[in-house]
């Protein structure tokens, strides 16, 4: 685990430190030849920033408070990076069979994995029980499947080791980004608390093996106090269940993740300490040791550690507006391209030698390589004049931007590198994921031995 003792205290990096690391990253990308004609963009994760974010979460929850901190696999589906979280004592939250196998391959013990898919198949439920993976039931129909699976597991292996819970939707409303809001009255996630409170309590009372409540009411664009209200309502249900059954049946409360990230600057805000303060103000009983807390942060643990670096291929002026054509677009910044107001990204300009340009700003557009008009990283942005051969760096892309590749135009997945400071104080680079080759794209497009079905002409209508 990360050493969180006072002597090993590691403060969160300030904006200046993050900027200096990014400047060095771009310079090193050029020096090591990571950008060329075959590989005109790459991603980089700064492990120092990643470690400091991990440490800051663990540090605000003292060792005497039972807690399981998990990294949301969907935010960073890179096996070497997930392994770093596993080595630091984290668990892993997964939402699909692929993410489950990735977590196991990265070295997370089964008892520190939480499986949160809203569409678990019977096979997936049985595998979770066999492995001893924790999971949360998303709806009453799934609960009926789990009833049967638990009975079968008891007959085969005895009492399952899995911590089994139920995901609640506190129905507290949306935040600033509707598509990211998980606690609306009609959200697809969990069982509506206002709709089914009595049924939820009864379901637990009938099943002593249900011992966890899960809520995920935070998200990008959500105030901390709003998210904490969902946790408070969930804790009230836990108290109702325990009162109904006459003992403490609820052993764990999973508060999810969803801590927003500041995409406007290099300042890390809000912090995990801010998140804990909001929870403690709303639900002080969470911190008296009664329950084990589970967290499922993703973007907040990874975003500030990541940078996309891409080459500028051409520049032109259209309608009086300078436009830079780069190799970073919808394939790596899908959410930002399709919802730029909700997911704006900063863009920095570096010269071909990796030196940050500080020239007077001009209003310019920065476009991606995909074949549609909306593939724009920035529109009408004030930036130093961009030239062919320059590099653009896109900060805050460590969360999701390396794990949600969009294969439009058969654009390949870029290489992702990691860099961190070793015990001697030197910065060491490693390859986290190889760049996808054109040959791999062609292979994935279908087997050459497969023959298309013969064309059958439609019958002519009768006279």
TrEMBL record:
Pfam families: Orn_Arg_deC_N (PF02784). Its cofactor is pyridoxal 5'-phosphate. One of its GO terms (molecular function) is diaminopimelate decarboxylase activity. It comes from the Bacteria. Keywords: Amino-acid biosynthesis, Lysine biosynthesis, Pyridoxal phosphate. The keyword Amino-acid biosynthesis applies. One of its GO terms (biological process) is lysine biosynthetic process via diaminopimelate. SUPFAM superfamilies: Alanine racemase C-terminal domain-like (SSF50621), PLP-binding barrel (SSF51419). The modification N6-(pyridoxal phosphate)lysine is found at residue 74. InterPro entries: Ala_racemase/Decarboxylase_C, DAP_deCOOHase_LysA, De-COase2_CS, De-COase2_N, Orn/DAP/Arg_de-COase, PLP-binding_barrel. The active site is at 371 (proton donor). Residues 70-303 form the Orn/DAP/Arg decarboxylase 2 N-terminal domain. The keyword Membrane does not apply. PANTHER family: DIAMINOPIMELATE DECARBOXYLASE (PTHR43727), GROUP IV DECARBOXYLASE (PTHR43727:SF3). This is Diaminopimelate decarboxylase.
């Amino acid at each position: 685990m990360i050493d969180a003792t006072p002597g090993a205290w590691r403060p969160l990096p300030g904006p200046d430190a993050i900027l200096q690391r990014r400047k060095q990253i771009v310079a090193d990308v050029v020096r090591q030849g990571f950008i060329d004609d075959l590989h005109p963009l790459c991603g980089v994760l700064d492990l120092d920033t990643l470690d400091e974010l991990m440490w800051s979460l663990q540090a605000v929850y003292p060792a005497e408070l039972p807690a399981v901190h998990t990294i949301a696999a969907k935010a960073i589906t890179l096996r070497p990076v997930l392994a770093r979280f596993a080595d630091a004592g984290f668990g892993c939250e997964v939402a699909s069979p692929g993410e489950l196998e990735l977590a196991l391959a990265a070295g997370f013990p089964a008892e520190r994995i939480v499986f949160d898919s809203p569409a678990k198949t019977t096979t997936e439920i049985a595998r979770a029980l066999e492995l001893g993976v924790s999971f949360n039931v998303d709806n009453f129909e799934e609960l009926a499947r789990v009833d049967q699976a638990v009975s079968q597991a008891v007959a085969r292996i005895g009492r399952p080791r899995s911590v089994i819970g139920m995901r609640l939707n506190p129905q507290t409303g949306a935040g600033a980004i509707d598509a990211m809001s998980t606690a609306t009255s009609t959200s697809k996630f969990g069982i509506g608390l206002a709709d089914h409170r009595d049924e939820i309590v009864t379901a637990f009372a009938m099943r002593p093996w249900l011992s966890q409540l899960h809520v995920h009411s935070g998200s990008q664009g959500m105030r901390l106090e709003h998210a904490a209200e969902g946790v408070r309502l969930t804790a009230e249900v836990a108290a109702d269940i325990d009162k109904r059954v006459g003992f403490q049946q609820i052993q764990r409360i999973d508060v999810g993740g969803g801590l927003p990230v500041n995409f406007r600057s290099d300042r890390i805000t809000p912090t995990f300490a801010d998140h804990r303060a909001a929870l403690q103000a709303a639900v002080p009983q969470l911190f008296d040791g009664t329950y084990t807390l589970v967290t499922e942060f993703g973007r907040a643990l990874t975003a500030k550690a990541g940078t996309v670096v891409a080459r500028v291929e051409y520049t032109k002026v259209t309608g009086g507006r300078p436009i830079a054509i780069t190799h970073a677009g919808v394939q790596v910044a899908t959410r930002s391209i399709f919802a730029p107001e909700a997911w704006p990204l900063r863009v920095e300009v570096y010269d071909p030698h990796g030196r940050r340009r500080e020239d007077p700003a001009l209003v310019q557009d920065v476009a991606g390589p995909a074949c549609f008009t909306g593939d724009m990283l920035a529109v009408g942005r004030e930036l130093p004049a961009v030239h062919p051969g320059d590099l653009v760096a896109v900060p805050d892309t460590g969360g999701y931007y390396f794990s949600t590749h969009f294969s439009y135009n058969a654009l390949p997945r870029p290489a992702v590198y990691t860099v961190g400071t070793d015990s001697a104080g030197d910065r060491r680079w490693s390859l986290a994921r190889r760049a996808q080759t054109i040959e791999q794209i062609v292979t994935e497009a279908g087997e050459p031995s497969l023959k298309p079905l013969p064309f059958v002409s439609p019958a002519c209508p009768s006279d």
